[in-house]
Design goal:
- The chain starts with 10 loop residues before the first helix and ends with a helix.
- With 369 residues, it is α/β, with parallel strands linked by helices.
- It folds into two domains: 223 residues, Type I PLP-dependent aspartate aminotransferase-like (Major domain) (Aspartate Aminotransferase, domain 2, 3-Layer(aba) Sandwich), CATH 3.40.640.10; 121 residues, Alpha-Beta Complex (Aspartate Aminotransferase, domain 1), CATH 3.90.1150.10.
- The protein binds pyridoxal-5'-phosphate.
- The site of pyridoxal-5'-phosphate has 15 residues, from helix 3 and helix 4.
Amino acid sequence: MSQQIPFLDLKTQYRALQTAINQRIQNVLEHGQFILGPEVEECEQKLAEFVKAKYAITCASGSDALMMALMALDLQQGDEIITTPFSFIATAEIPVLLGITPVFVDIEPGTFNIDPNKIEKAITPKTKAIIPVSLYGQPAEMDEINNLANKYNLFVIEDAAQSFGASYKERMSCNLSHIGCTSFFPAKPLGCYGDGGAIFTNDAKTALKLKEIRVHGQESRYFHTRLGINGRLDTLQCAILIPKLERFPWELEQRERIAQKYNKSFLHLESRLQLPKVIHDRTSAWAQYTIFVEERESLIQHLSRRSIPHSVHYPLPIHQQPAYKRWNNGPFPISERASKHVVSLPMYPDLNEENQDRVVEAVLEFFEN
Ligand SMILES: *Cc1c(COP(=O)(O)O)cnc(C)c1O
């Protein structure tokens, strides 16, 4: 019996980096600066360098990144933001928590990202920002979105929780608009060992505001000029991210290689499944390798019988979630159809060739029988 393939394997990655990570953790334990210690700044410098942004501000999660971004742009109760209903819930949850109304706009069927052609109609005098999500690792159509934003004087916050490491017209995701937000949740392309996130900007004023918001809106010790949160990322997590970031370019190549292999293996099935569509002017960080299949439920059953792990991102669009009834400005037929037909296959840099082959064989077996 061969071993069960995990949907995500972080142990192999840890073993590859064990010496460096253990040493980094040990250093933190010894210097004892667990909050905003020296590794935080070191990590932020390296993150900023990676996406070629002027500033990176680490924070406690991708969700906090979105919250701090909205707070730094002074969005308030009653304001509206435009976003996609086909995303992880946090994209809409965070605006709602701040009393901001999410106005949803449907996606493109190929990339599953927000359809820029549908945004303009959703703009009202209350609209303050657009929050495109770079879903599954592929940047949204950022130039068109930025142009619209300029025309109507709106901010653009890229929800790049899944796309750290991706590029768009030679520029890096997280650095494609006023503010980019990412997540270091362990399952994201660059993950830490717990919750974490970061915010990127090229604007010095925004960066300063974000740093204050991260510590309860504190301008100087115990002097608070704005509302903030406790949004810091632990020094330990930054210490872990530093060696992980060094391996990350190799990991991106590995993900690309696996995606190409899947694409090549499934190309002849294109009448029955839609392969992930990456637009020619961008790259994906391959947070997920997600196909669109009419017969998804029977494919899923088949994969389960073959012990091939799989997952659905996402089975119910946000506007149809029970808690979001009040903000349902749907229907959104493309998102709704996607939620019924997408399925993600195992995709991570340490997925070995034998297991890649097992995934491919199981999918082929389903379609060829
Ligand atoms: C994961 C994710 C988030 C939230 O990140 P956390 O670190 O889990 O808070 C937000 N948006 C998208 C699109 C995500 O995938």
